[in-house]
């Protein structure tokens, strides 16, 4: 197995060792690599010093784990600063963060192997860093627990029905874990938060940060934002209805035309008005088509009018935090299938009285199977409702999200 050893002078050493190797032999290898005498080495794993006579497997060191090495000449304070609590969090998160930040090689490896942790280390939220460290520790503990269960099943009675069920579940889970490990190696950015696409616009002369969403049928403005932009007086309440997506929101009406400014050019735009306090403005597919917009992810810009205007997508630091937390939920529930032409007299039909597909043993069986793939129950139920109980389409949506 491979383990990574971080020294007090920020040197990173990767060693290929046997699980049953003694700590003393590990120190001998480190003496060759770091020139630090064996007698002066102090190895820490999860905040606890590991002794020479102990074996790596006995103290819980596994493939890919991190071991800290400090010289006994170092101060006890600095040793404590770089150690870990039993739950995997850092004893001194600020010192740990600064230690990792100073090592460009380690940061480069982290951005490749664990972008979420790397982002937390270069960020300013120590609580988030601690949460991620605890999560990684919990994942490793869960993996060890499953490995122990698999080992116990090898010696189970082959005619025991319950044991066979557990073996089947273990095989299925192993496939999921291998898929997860392959994704970490070949597609690690999939585990980091994807920042949605925002651009600076002006609506009726008022500056806004517009969420660009090609998956939303209509361009949407919230009631509060329309009022702030002086457009609420133009709202046509004959276009009331319900916007359906993964959830639903009330359509209050429609503003048929108003000027928006993108870059230095003005364009006419129409909006569906929703009672959505957490999302100001969503630039949907109707206006993207009308104004021949191009979402250029290579250059990270939105091109409007076939390329006559280009505006950059905003960086995460320029987007309000409440937008980042709410936009995905609001976009899917309010904008994904917004019915922009629903008039008041068809509202009852929009809300509908279709049979409830979210009840019964068949629906619960689908929920159970999708949960076994690693998704949360709430997300699974919403996806199945959105696709009218189609399990394959829901699974595709969940994997794609």
Automatic annotation (TrEMBL):
Gene Ontology biological-process entries: protein transport; proteolysis
Keyword list, A-Z: Aspartyl protease, Cytoplasm, Hydrolase, Protease, Protein transport, Transport
Comp. bias intervals (Polar residues): 347-359
Localization in the cell: Cytoplasm
Pfam families reported in the protein's UniProt record: Asp_protease, Ddi2_HDD, UBA, ubiquitin
Ubiquitin-like domain location: 1-76
Gene3D superfamilies named among the record's database cross-references: Acid Proteases (2.40.70.10), DNA helicase RuvA subunit, C-terminal domain (1.10.8.10), Phosphatidylinositol 3-kinase Catalytic Subunit, Chain A, domain 1 (3.10.20.90)
Annotated spans, Disordered: 330-361
Biased composition (Low complexity): 330-342
Record bears the keyword Repeat: no
Cellular component aspect of the GO annotation: cytoplasm
Main location (coarse class): cytoplasm
A GO MF term: polyubiquitin modification-dependent protein binding
Top-level division of the source organism's lineage: Eukaryota
Record family assignment: Belongs to the DDI1 family.
Name of the featured protein: DNA damage-inducible protein 1
């Amino acid at each position: 197995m491979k383990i990574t050893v971080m020294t007090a002078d920020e040197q990173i050493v990767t060693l290929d060792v046997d699980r049953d190797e003694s700590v003393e032999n590990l120190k001998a290898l480190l003496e060759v690599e770091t020139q630090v005498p064996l007698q002066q080495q102090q190895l820490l794993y999860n905040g606890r010093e590991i002794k020479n006579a102990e074996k790596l497997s006995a103290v819980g060191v596994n493939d890919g784990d991190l071991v800290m090495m400090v010289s006994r000449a170092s101060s006890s304070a600095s040793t404590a600063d770089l150690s870990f609590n039993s739950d995997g969090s850092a004893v001194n998160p600020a010192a740990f963060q600064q230690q990792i930040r100073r090592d460009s090689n380690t940061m480069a490896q982290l951005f490749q192997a664990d972008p979420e942790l790397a982002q937390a280390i270069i960020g300013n939220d120590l609580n988030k860093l601690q949460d991620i460290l605890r999560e990684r520790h919990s994942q490793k503990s869960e993996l060890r627990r499953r490995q122990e269960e698999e080992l116990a099943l090898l010696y189970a009675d082959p005619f025991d029905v319950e044991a066979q069920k557990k073996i089947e579940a273990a095989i299925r889970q192993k496939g999921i874990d291998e898929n997860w490990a392959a994704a970490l190696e070949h597609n690690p950015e999939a585990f980091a938060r994807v920042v949605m696409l925002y651009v600076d616009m002006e609506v009726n002369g008022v500056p806004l940060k517009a969420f660009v969403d090609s998956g939303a049928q209509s361009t949407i403005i919230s009631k509060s934002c329309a009022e702030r932009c002086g457009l609420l007086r133009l709202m046509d309440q004959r276009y009331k209805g319900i916007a359906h997506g993964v959830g639903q929101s009330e359509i209050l009406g429609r503003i048929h035309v108003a000027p928006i400014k993108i870059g230095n050019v003005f364009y006419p735009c129409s909006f569906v008005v929703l009672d959505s306090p957490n999302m100001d403005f969503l630039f949907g597919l109707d206006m993207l088509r009308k104004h021949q917009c191009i979402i250029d992810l290579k250059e990270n810009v939105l091109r409007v009018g076939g390329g006559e205007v280009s505006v950059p997508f905003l960086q995460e630091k320029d987007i309000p935090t409440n937008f980042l937390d709410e936009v995905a939920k609001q976009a899917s529930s309010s904008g994904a299938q917004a019915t922009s032409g629903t008039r008041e007299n068809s509202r009852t039909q929009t809300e509908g009285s279709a049979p409830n597909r979210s009840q019964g043993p068949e629906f619960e069986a689908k929920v159970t199977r999708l949960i076994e793939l690693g998704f949360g129950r709430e997300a699974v139920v919403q996806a199945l409702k959105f696709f009218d109980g189609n399990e394959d389409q829901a699974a595709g949506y969940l994997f794609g999200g």
